[in-house]
Write a structure and sequence with these properties.
The chain is an all-alpha fold and about 300 residues long. About 75% of the residues lie in helices and about 0% in strands. It is built from 16 helices and no strands. The longest helix is centred in the first third of the chain and has 29 residues. The protein is globular. About 5% of the residues have low confidence.
Length: about 300
């Protein structure tokens, strides 16, 4: 019996460590729920150092968002990489995103595609959509519209409604699929119904131009306005245009000026062009009011 004692002691130690790790992660969950990010970061650091993939991923998120301390994309990339190497799917997507945009690491579309592929293979809808965009643009992979369309369908089936806009554009232009304006419209409608500004803007353009749907400035304006409220710069420019020319709404140059001021923050060249055109029709007092509103404006969540 004495020969089994060392094995028993090892088993007890492992069980104790496992129980302790679960307790620490539970404490971290409580801290996160209470928005006590300083405590959460400390608790997660302990388990991340011990190799817990979920703790590593969550710690990466805190470093990414600057919660519980200074933001550090470099530190976030380290923890995302460690978690991804252990097969943590969300971490695979996260480090793929970092490589795609060059955040915390040197930009590398090849590595981005590899991490997206690993996550996409196990059904991660976000990774499927991101990988599709790489195939659409030939970044890190050979351009392949058929592959992109297949990935976007998979992402959509997996619940990623943002993929509806991307797939909608493929049907609109006939990339990797037969051109089908009706299908494009349906996909843009799906994305807009999920309140994605880019899909709402795309749908608004169809109604503005009467392309595949009956022309309706009224519908277009409502779609543009909702997207503009979410901070979509092209929608802000279109709202300003429609207000300036009275397309689907009563002409209101003062309100158009406000939307152009908002658009100026993201697309200064286009906004300033239209501001110059509109300037003779907007009084200084109205400009001041619009500027005050613009300074205090926040996009809707």
């Amino acid at each position: 019996m004495i020969f089994y004692r060392p094995i028993l002691l090892v088993l007890v130690a492992v069980m104790f460590a496992s129980t302790s790790a679960r307790a620490t992660m539970t404490e971290a969950e409580v801290a996160l729920g209470a928005h006590d990010y300083v405590a959460a970061r400390a608790l997660l650091m302990d388990e991340a150092d011990n190799g817990d993939a979920d703790a590593q991923y969550r710690l990466g998120v805190l470093f990414d968002r600057g919660r519980g301390g200074m933001a550090s994309p470099k530190a976030a990339s380290v923890w995302f990489s460690r978690a991804a190497a252990q097969g943590h799917v969300a971490a695979m997507h996260a480090i793929g995103t970092y490589y795609e945009i060059g955040k915390g690491v040197a930009q590398d579309h090849v590595l981005a595609s590899r991490w997206y592929s690993a996550a996409a293979e196990v059904g991660d809808a976000k990774a499927q959509r991101n990988l599709a965009n790489l195939y659409l643009n030939g970044l890190g992979v050979a351009r392949d519209y058929d592959r992109a369309a297949a990935l976007l369908r998979a992402a959509l089936e997996g619940g990623n409604t943002r993929a509806a806009k991307n797939l909608g554009y493929m049907y609109y232009f006939g990339l990797g699929v037969s051109q089908d304006l009706r299908e494009a419209t349906s996909l843009f409608e799906l994305g807009a119904a999920a309140d994605h500004a880019t899909a709402g803007f795309a749908l608004g353009l169809l109604y503005y131009e009467g392309n595949g749907v009956p022309q309706s400035f009224d519908v277009a304006h409502r779609l543009f306005l909702r997207a503009a409220d979410a901070g979509h710069v092209d929608a802000q420019l279109m709202v300003a245009r429609m207000l300036a020319f009275g397309e689907g709404v009563l002409a209101n140059q003062h309100e158009a000026w406000f939307w152009l001021l908002l658009a100026e923050a993201q697309n200064p060249a286009a906004a300033r062009y239209y501001l110059a055109k509109l300037a003779p029709e907007v009084l200084d007092e109205a400009r001041d009011r619009a500027a005050s509103r613009a300074r205090n404006w926040q996009p809707r969540d």
